[in-house]
């Protein structure tokens, strides 16, 4: 491709050359990117735009909502509801699904999102992001309801995130590898910075919230203990640790230079499968990671093969460099 390729051009060429993104999906992704641009503007203003701090409300997960959680959710809905490419949306910040109002044409896609990932970083000026996943309405279905959203992650037709960090970067897959685009604020457009992103199979870097160590299950404890033992331990090398507390930033680092990320089930809330949400966080990130040559499991099973039972389902997440993910998964399976 030529030296400066915009997201628009990339998507047109994906549609033209490979023919595997229909024009409706291309339009949908353009609109998501536009919404991310305006969320990025709000994020950049920070205290100058009155977007910091908490709102008065709680979301369905029992988390106090930040003002930006709500703003980002509204931006995504307003940008996407009128275009005619969607039948409905679902979000971490909404209890039920959002059906496209019947004053607008109904499309055949479903959009799911974590409008603002890493909420605890908002007020301290650290990276946050938006995560999204696109599914197709089941064939012959009339009228959208929650069950239409309950599809395994391998059914996704597009997935990605936009990270609001030192740069605003959109990372996308439509099933043909992973591409990264950085927002050029002067041009107002996302410009391709890397195609066919590949994660190294081995790594010396891991990401987990170590403060939960006493709550972990045995296989995770064993794995991390071995990493901490360094070059004198069974792994024979020293490992480094990073934890941004925004999945979007931890996954971005892994896509850039490898690593393993874990938010495993733990004993704090045994009835929940984990902290992270399958539909808005684990599925889109797992597909990106697999598309870049990595792996993603819940310890026992490939995340993309999990059949969701409900919209806000939680899941244990282990993803990143293939050989490390396979090792932890092996420990869970009794290896
Ligand atoms: P969100 O801000 O969308 O609720 O998600 C936060 C998630 C995830 O991004 C991050 O990896 C994790 O929570 C951090 O959790 P801890 O604060 O328990 O480390
Ligand atoms: Mn949240
Ligand atoms: Mn999140
Ligand atoms: Mn969120």
UniProtKB/TrEMBL annotation:
Q: Which domain of life is it from?
A: Bacteria
User: Which cofactors, by name?
Assistant: Mg(2+)
Q: Cellular component GO terms, alphabetically? A: cytosol
Against Gene3D superfamilies, the record matches this protein to: 3.40.190.80, Fructose-1,6-Bisphosphatase, subunit A, domain 1
Q: What is this protein called?
A: Fructose-1,6-bisphosphatase class 1
Binding of substrate occurs at 117-120, 209, 275
Q: Which SUPFAM superfamilies match?
A: Carbohydrate phosphatase
Give any GO molecular function from the UniProt entry.
fructose 1,6-bisphosphate 1-phosphatase activity
Pathway per the UniProt entry: Carbohydrate biosynthesis
In which residues is Mg(2+) 2 bound? 114, 117, 281
Which NCBIfam families does UniProt cross-reference here?
PRK09293.1-1, PRK09293.1-3, PRK09293.1-4
Domain Fructose-1-6-bisphosphatase class 1 C-terminal, residue spans: 199-331
EC number annotated for this UniProt entry = 3.1.3.11
